[in-house]
Each structure stands twice: as C-alpha cells, then as structure tokens.
Amino acid sequence: MEEELFEKLYSYENLEKAFKKARKGKTLKPYVIEFEENLIENLHQLQFELISQTYTPKELKTFVIRDPKTRKISKSHFRDRVIHHAICNIIEPIIDKKFIFDSYANRKGKGGLNAILRFNCFKKKVSNNFTKKCFVLKADIKSYFDNVNHEILVRILNKYFSNEETLQLIKLILENHKTTEKGKGMPLGNLTSQFFANVYLNELDQYIKHILKIKYYIRYVDDFVILHHNKTELNQYMNKINVFLKEQLNIYLHPEKSKILDLNKGVNFLGFRVFPYHILLAKRNLRKFQKSLLKLQYRYLYENLSREKVVEKLEGWIAYSSNANTFKLRKKIISRFNLMFPIEQDEKINVLKKHQNFSQKIENNKFHFTEQKTLHLFRKGLNVKQIAKKRDLQEGTIYKHLCVLVSNHQIKLKEVLQTWKVKLILENVGFEKSVKKIFEKINNCEVSLDDVALVLANIESKKKKKSIFYYVNWYKKVNCYRKCYYNKTQREICNLKFQKLINFASYMEFTKKEFLDFINNKTNICELDVNLKNKFISWEEFKLTKKLSQPK
Question: Labelling 381: which of 91, 129, 196, 534 has CA 20 to 30 A away?
C-alpha cells in the first residue's frame, strides 16, 4: 500500500484531477489558457519528471498585501500548483480523518462561520446558559508560517505514511521557499502550506484534547480559543501549551495576542466580536467593507462597473454580515443602494434573478426587523400562538405585526383568518372605524378584537398607495401571464423591461388606477395592441381559453 502511494500521486488521472482543481475560478487567466492548450503534453511532462525524480519547482513570485495587515504572499507557478493539488489529493484523505472535530481551517464542511457557530454552542454550555461567568483564552502563535520547522513537519508526516518518494517531493516543495533561516517557514498562499499548517498543529490539538483533556477548544489555523468558567485554570493551560509548543514544535504563543478575556466584554474571533447574547462584526471588518463600498461606488460611476457586479458583491457581504447582529447596518446599506448606484437608462441586465432578489430585499427593507421575523416564521407554517411562544412575545404583539404585514400586502387576509369570520366582520363594519365598537356589534365569542383589527388593516390597505415593486409583480401575474401565456419569449423580454423600471423608479408609489394608466399610456413595455393591452382577462376566462386551446 505504501509503495502504491507515489504511483497514485503521479498517475495521469490524479494529475488531470489536480489540474481541474488548480484551474477552478481561473479559467480566463492567460497562464491557465496557455497550460490547457497543450494539456495532455504538459501533464505527461509533469508525470515524467515525477517518475524520474527530476521535477524542480519554479521560483516563487512574492508580493506584499496590506488588507487588513501587512503580509508577504508567495505565488507558485501554475504547473507547481497542479503538483500541490496532486499531493493533497492523495495524502489529505489519509491524514484528515486523524484531525480533531474542532479544527476548522481549510477542511470540507468546516470554515470560519461554522467555527463561530461552535463558539456560540460552547459559550452556552460553559456559562450554563449565561448563569455563570465564562472566560476565554484567545491565543495566537507568533509568526506561525515563518517558524514551521521542516524537519519536525516531515517527521510528523512520516507517522501517517513512510513512502520515501512522496516525502522527498514534499521536502523539495518546502525548500523552494527561501527564508532567512534555512529549514524553517512555509509560503503564505500555497495549498500545501494551508494543509501542512493543519498537520503541524494537529500535534497541539491531540495534546489539548487527550493529555490536557480540554473540552471546549476551537482552532482555525494558528488562532485558537479555549472556553472555561475558571480563569486560574485557563492560565495554567496557557503555560502548559506554551511549554509544549516550544519543546515539541519549536514555536511559541504570541505574548501580546494571547490573553484571557471575559466573554461579557466581547471576544474577537475570526472577524466577529462575540458577546454572551449577541455577535457583532469586528471593527476592522466594518472599516474594510465601508472602504470597499466607496471603491465600488467610484468604479460604478467612473469606470463602467456593471450594476449586476455591484449587486453580486453586495449580496455576498450581506450574506456574510447576516451571521452577526447587523440588521440596522444592512437596512441602512440597502435603503441607500439606489442613491449610491443610480441606474442608467441603457443599463444592461445579464442575470435577471440577481436583480429581482435584490429588489425584493429593498422592498422588505421597509419593514422593521421584528415584523420581518414574524413574516419569516409565518411563512414556515407556524400559527400565531407558536410564533409568540418561539419569539417569547405576547400574542397581541404578533397580531400587530400581522396587521402591518396585511396592510402592506405581505400576507393575504385569507391566510390568517377563516372566510366566515371575514364575512361576518365585514357585514358589521359599515362606516365604523373603531375596532372595539365593531367587536361589540358582532357579539360572537369566536371572533376576537385582533380578528377585527386584521380586517380593518386589509380595508385600509386598499386605500393605500403601493410601491411599483408590488404592482409590477401583480401586473405580471394578472396580465402578462394570462395574455402572453403561449409567448414565453415575449414575457422574458417584458420581464427585463420591468426590472429596469423597478431599478430606475423604486421610489414611486401608485393606486391601482394610476399604475395601469402609467404602464398602458406612459411606458412602452407591453407590445400588445391597445385594445388587448387594456382588456382585463379573468382567471376563469383564462382557464377556459387555456383548456380550449389544448390539443385533444
């Protein structure tokens, strides 16, 4: 089995698989296109060099980035990246199963956000649901990648496999990174460096879990946290860990960044600031986003960056920031979106769905977070009693949220109230606007004050002006779908026109009559003749037409 390891590594199938992984997300890069033009020849050449042990990695290209801190990144040649993937394809499955569960960096199904979720789980357990103090040892290894000892790393790898050719190839890759101290350091930016970083610190993971028997421990590359209710014990753990790192791995904890913190005062971890009851974005991440937003605005206004690309980038940030308690911040950004990125008349839309989803976010942005949360739970199928219990609120509060949602057409009245109740309440409304007086007039024990309030909210909604977003969606369902049912291409063309209209005039509000006049007489979206455009087709008429036109 050990003898076959290197054979699997240099096999053409593995090299081809490695190439596809190295190419992912970079298909338009010139160096990828050049390599792919003679793919079979290039892969066979790599295979020959590995078999004959004449493979030599090319010199690394080094550059400095300052985002958020200054770091030196070393970039490998593309053919070397193929080799890195080929190595990881073979040895990662062997070693990964030896890693502990709570190692979260560069592993499938793990990642930073899952590490934060695990932190949330641990903080509840350690504090006994926040009834006890919780302290966190937040630790960082000083200049970790620069101080990884090659000899120790190879010795650790030798515990998992002893194939000499594979180990020799790994030594070659490690030595290709030129450092001030020979036999030390790995380049930031290489796939192998990311994987070997986990292999190296797996020794620490095993020591913490099996020797120190620490239960609440999470590691992401060289950042790790230990949660405990006793500050003195954490101090002892920190001293023991530092001794282990120095003696066994020839590295040590950062004296300034490794400290014991009170969870009540917040703990910075992986871009978030974690508190007992909430999570915030780290200030540096917030500053970074605000700078990026201003850059996006400049590029959009002066460098022809497409609105679609802006939406894509903003959607990514909103998805990321939604893992923290950032509702007000997200609401502010979304509400300012159309002002910061005004649409041009000839704006091109490539992926319609992206724009529609973002328009929906802008529309939902009009509601408070508490109402949005109620709507979300209602859509999941929970009734008023269940929502109130889940949110720890009074049922009357939930009904108030539903009244707002009904009056803004987010929920249909029939979804909340039975038809007989609606009819009974409407019979007793007349010109009366007082919920209490209508309730007294009905005199039915099965009808509540909240039921009456919902019906009145629905009546009020009919007098309200509604957003262009609401009426466009209504028009597409009632008119476009029924009149152009068999002309899907035309509906798609009109769909694009409607989305441009929403983007351009998202602030506009209408009554139903005003909207129909606006669409039929002041826009050229619908291409049907005037008589058909103005004609109303009922659902029954549409079903009958559809039935008659079907082949027998």
Answer: 129
**Alpha-carbon distance 476 to 469, whole Å?**
11
Phi then psi for 537, rounded to 5 degrees?
A: -110, 115
Above 50 in pLDDT, residue 151? yes
pLDDT at 345 over 60: no
What's the sign of the alpha-carbon dihedral 337, 340, 343, 349? Answer: negative
Give CA–CA dist 300/463, Å, rounded: 39
SS3 284: helix
pLDDT at 354: 64
Which burial class, exposed, middle or buried, applies to 406 when counting CB atoms under 10 A from its CB (0-12, 13-18, 19+)?
Answer: buried
Q: DSSP state, 409?
A: T
* 120 DSSP assignment: H
What is d(CA 297, CA 264) in angstroms, rounded to the nearest whole number? Answer: 37
Q: What gap in Å lies between CA 514 and CA 532, rounded to an integer?
A: 19
pTM recorded for the entire structure: 0.70
Q: Which residues, 6 or more positions from 264, have their beta carbon under 8 angstroms from its beta carbon?
A: 133, 134, 275, 276
**Which residues in 258-273 are b (16+ Cβ under 10 Å) and which e?**
bebbebeebbbbbbbb
Backbone phi, then psi, for 65, in 5-degree steps?
Answer: -120, 150
C-alpha 542/C-alpha 552 separation (Å) is 18
Query: Which is nearest to 454 in space by CA: 491, 416, 487?
Result: 416
Tokens representing 249? Answer: 């791995």
CA-CA-CA-CA dihedral for 206, 210, 216, 218, to nearest 10: 0
**Which tens digit of pLDDT belongs to each residue from 443-490?**
777 888 888 888 888 887 777 777 777 778 778 887 787 778 777 888
| pLDDT greater than 50 at residue 45 | yes
CB atoms within 10 A of CB 383: 13
- CA dist., res. 506 & res. 204, Å (int): 55
Q: CA-to-CA distance for 259 and 275, rounded, in angstroms?
A: 16
How is residue 472 written in tokens? Answer: 């466009």
Q: Is the peptide bond before 68 cis (omega within 30 degrees of 0)?
A: yes
Tokens describing residue 89:
């394809």
**Position 57: which residue type?**
P
Q: State the amino acid at position 513 in one-letter form.
A: K
Q: Which residue has the tokens 């649901």?
A: 129
Other CB atoms within 10 A of residue 137 CB: 24
Give the tens place of pLDDT for each residue, 63-90. 777 665 667 777 888 999 999 999 999 9
Name the burial class of residue 552, with classes exposed (0-12), middle (13-18) and buried (19+) by CB atoms within 10 angstroms of its CB. exposed
In 454-505, the DSSP E strands lie at 466-467
**Reduced to 3 states, what is the DSSP secondary structure of residue 259?**
strand
Sheet arrangement for strand 223-228:
217-220, 223-228, 135-140, 259-262
